[in-house]
Design brief:
Helix content is 30%, strand content 29%. The protein has 193 residues and is α/β, with parallel strands linked by helices. Helix 6 crosses helix 7.
């Protein structure tokens, strides 16, 4: 987690929500981190609820104790709910994203692994297959969107996997200034509907 580069995490939310044509949105965010994705999602006036699934209880505690810059606006927003759980295990279980979370949502935003091929834990690998992504699609309302951050630019091979499951899949390159190098850096955001 870093607060040096937050443009792509915010773009994950704005691009994902912009792809949904609905007046009210229920959103699930996989990964809380410093809350840039959740914070950007809450800025959309159509958002009715944001359930943020985080595996590390300590990260939830940081925000509940208002220790980080975005903690107050995120934790104090009545639409936002923190769920302590393993996002990937919850998707695989087919039982929902936790108590109080709608069975189906309009948007799922994922910001956990580095890329679909550079995962933080080997157990996540199956999620990025057609079968794993089908379980995500099953959690979406009609016209719903799955969007995902990647440390790498969009990869055509993964877009092809997304297109096996979703009607429309796009990759967005998000370029931002890098004060460490004096140049620019980029991340990818996948959006699938």
């Amino acid at each position: 987690m870093s607060s040096l580069f937050t443009v792509a995490e915010e773009a994950l939310a704005t691009l994902g929500l912009a792809a949904v044509d609905a007046h009210e949105l229920d959103v699930v965010v996989g990964g809380l981190g410093l809350a840039y994705t959740a914070g950007a999602a809450l800025e959309d006036p159509r958002v009715r609820s944001v359930h943020v699934v985080e595996t590390l209880e300590a990260v939830i505690d940081w925000h509940e104790q208002r220790l980080l810059p975005l903690s107050p606006p995120v934790a104090d927003d009545a639409r936002c709910h923190f769920v302590h759980g393993d996002f990937f295990a919850l998707v695989a279980s087919g039982s929902g994203f936790g108590e109080g979370t709608p069975a189906k949502v309009d948007v799922i935003l994922l910001d956990i692994d580095h890329t679909p091929t550079h995962v933080l834990h080997g157990s996540h690998a199956g999620f990025y297959s057609p079968a794993g992504l089908s379980r995500v699609a099953d959690r979406l309302n009609p016209g719903g969107v799955f969007a995902m951050w990647s440390d790498d630019p969009p990869d055509e091979a993964f877009l092809a996997v997304l297109r096996q499951v979703f009607e429309v899949s796009e990759g967005h390159l998000v370029v931002f200034p890098n004060p460490l190098t004096g140049g620019t850096s980029s991340n990818g955001v996948y959006v699938a509907r």
